[in-house]
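Model the whole thing, not chain by chain.
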Amino acid sequence: MPRSSKTEDRTTLLDARAMSRALQRMAVEILELAHGTDDLVLVGIQRRGVELAERLAKLIEKDEGVSVPRGALDITLYRDDLETVGPTPVIGETRLPGDLTGRHAVIVDDVLYTGRTVRAALDELADFGRPKRISLCVLVDRGGRELPIQADIVGHVVKTVPGDRVDVQVEEIDGRDQVDLVR
Amino acid sequence: MTSQGSLGKDLTGLEHMSPEHIRLILDTAEPFKEVSERPIKKVPALRGKTIVNLFFEASTRTRISFEFAEKRLSADTVNVAATGSSVSKGETLVDTARNLEAMRIDMVVIRHPSSGAAEFLGNRIASNVINAGDGQHEHPTQALLDLLSIRDKHGKIQGLKVCLVGDVLHSRVARSNLWGLTKLGAEVAVCGPRTLLPRGIEDLGVTVFGRVEEAIEWADVLNVLRLQLERMEKGFIPSLREYYRVFGVTPERLERSPRPITIMHPGPMNRGVEIDSRVADGPHSIILDQVTNGVAVRMAVLYLLAGGRAELADAAKRGTGGGSE
């Protein structure tokens, strides 16, 4: 979400075309990683991860001619910081396409930063079955990990410092595709 | 959303709650419904929290509903019933609560026969206090689950005509419903024997129906209240059979309605007194949906109260804005 501030410096990392190319490459990489679509499930993290998972699924479906199951995950109730930051006012939907046991689940999110969201997502997925493999696919890796977590597939890597913000906008929610670094 | 803030420390009633906070609870309850449908019906949101269910009055549904809500949020729970505890040895409410607090608890869910007991307790202990029914005062989580069930069924509450039928005078469910419904813009009516309606209720902008047929003609939703059997002994109504004959919600009466009427009941039902079995089990009854929604609403309340302060919720929003994690 863009926020205005006098001292803000905004650099565009990906415009709509660059984002489209990144997503196409990521879709191909998912297919390679999963050796096809047989066991593949894409799981988007609320909110923008859900839209990105939908896009990736459609790209894969176009190439492969099969339907790819996808789900949505809201990790709010698995966060480790309820005590310190308080409850999130509105929790998004969680829906998964059936039992994940034996499937290859690919978690899709917009930005990978501290890794805490992914930690929560892993815990939450474990409560929905035992996937044979879980991979992580993110549009932007901004560094700054606080946990030993890394992505398998990355759209764009950028070095950031704490206080920076990576704004991901997607057509479905924000009316346009763009990734900005704000510092 | 920022202006919604937090609910504060306690939930004692809906009378002083803003419409925004009521909507916040209902909106938060929505995703919690899905948690109860999962293969593992549990999320770790309240892991490490200790909750005491302090019930000074008999209750099955409400206590179990709270307990499920607490357990599905991974809280640790202890049930204390008045009988067989130190309460029956003459310990005061505050002493009981302070002793529990000395064991480092985080929240108390209290049901008590005295009106105002929840607020009284909330003002004296540091733990969060949730009112699970206090005397004839309020039963806020029941009203919240009623509101959620109406919203699920009709898609809105604003402008709906909701009639509470029966013993409005002694009913904390009715009182909380009146506050909640009016705050969310429903038109509210009551229907029952004059002896069981509060005096001057018309002055609150509530329509009064003396005959259940009139109420049925008017309403989109009937919330049929439980007739407490001791009312008869105390002379409020002549007999249960008479009550059923005059105020019972029956299929024959509902047939005359110009529209399908949603039927609700907070339970436990007296079948054949305030409600006919064919209505309770009929196609327009959402009585069991109310029970399902009860767990979700209570999860939402526990979650929101456990989380704490408004500025912290805002910070959380800033932290997650644009997916910066």
